Glutamate-1-semialdehyde 2,1-aminomutase (Marinomonas piezotolerans), 428 residues
Amino acid sequence: MSRSEDLYTRAQKHIPGGVNSPVRAFNGVGGTPLFFQKGEGAYVYDEDGKRYIDYVGSWGPMIVGHSHPDVINAVRKQLDFGLSFGAPTEVETTMAEKVCELVPSMDMVRMVNSGTEATMSAIRLSRGYTGRDKIVKFEGCYHGHSDSLLVKAGSGALTLGVPNSPGVPADLAQHTITLQYNDIEEVKSCFAELGDQIACIIVEPVAGNMNCILPVPGFLETLRQVCDESGAVLIFDEVMTGFRVALGGAQEKFKVTPDLTTLGKVIGAGMPVGAFGGKKAIMEYISPLGPVYQAGTLSGNPVAMVAGLAVLNKISEEGFHRELERKTSLLVSGIQAAADELGVSVATVSVGGMFGLFFSNQKQVSTFADVQKCDTEMFKLFFHYMLEEGVYLAPSAFEAGFTSQAHSDEDIEFTIAAAKRAFVKLAK
Ligand code: PLP
């Protein structure tokens, strides 16, 4: 029995499902989740000492690689001063200044402890600011697990929202309208009918929770337009894309400016951090300036702030994202070429330091319906073949992959060669 198997058996006694977040349980791919002991640069090491090239990066934060010395040293230095005060610290202001500099649509920012908190608070703020209850989201987009956002629509755009988890009150879910990602006409007709009741649109500007789907030309622009016309707040959930698809996030890459932005992952460098911010007129609605309540015992925690700032400084260096993007497209084009050569139906996509790999006959996958048609059985096999090869991919066919500065060209060549060997087995 491997140490991971042993630890998993032990974990299941007192932790539901043996994990503290469901996708870690390997339900999407089968088998036993790996327990990790150490991360260094592009690699993670499991409890049996096996090394893997890591394309999960703690689900996004590790954009400079694991245990980067700048991050570790910043944390070590802060430890001598204390862990938390529940009072303002200078580093919070430095962090706010840095975030607002990198994401110019943000005049003000409030730190929180997770992406879920960021999106939940941005929704409350939008509702408080507009005095409206309805919100619009898109099927296949994930914005954390707060009640209003754990909802999918029934068939048809304007049917009332139905919760997709027990425990979410139907009374609340009915205020969430779920539309199809990349369906411009559906957005327009929804706003033509209900625009004056809608508080906000929340969207992943690149959808990274149904694999990796790019916005079609005109989609984000349409969201901006209907929000301008109706007075709804446009929220870009950049928890995943922020600082990753470009230094200024997806809004910089696709040149569409939201009213509010939510951040997480990279901003905390692996510490529990999220943030939301945007236009001053909206942000001034939050307590203590305004009537919309929002708070947190550990928000802006100094250890987390110094870690996050170290990463934001690192990624601000000239050429960081150019190099990250080069490596990501090297990876993706190599995998695509290997699949094509062996006649395995695969579609790939990459943007900045984020990529998608679909077992699909379609060359371009752009909707949730397209994603659902992908061959998840092929993905499961591929995942385990790659794991044997020492490559750690997200244990689900519906997650984006992440690269880091620490991934060398040799790591990428190794990964492509491993994928080729896996495709040979799949082609049989
Ligand atoms: N928003 C997006 C786009 C995400 O990808 C996630 C998490 O994966 C969240 C929000 C929730 O963030 P957290 O898991 O930190 O609560």
Summary: Residues 59, 114-116, 119, 142-144, 204, 208-209, 237, 239-240, 264, 274 surround pyridoxal-5'-phosphate (CB under 6 Å).
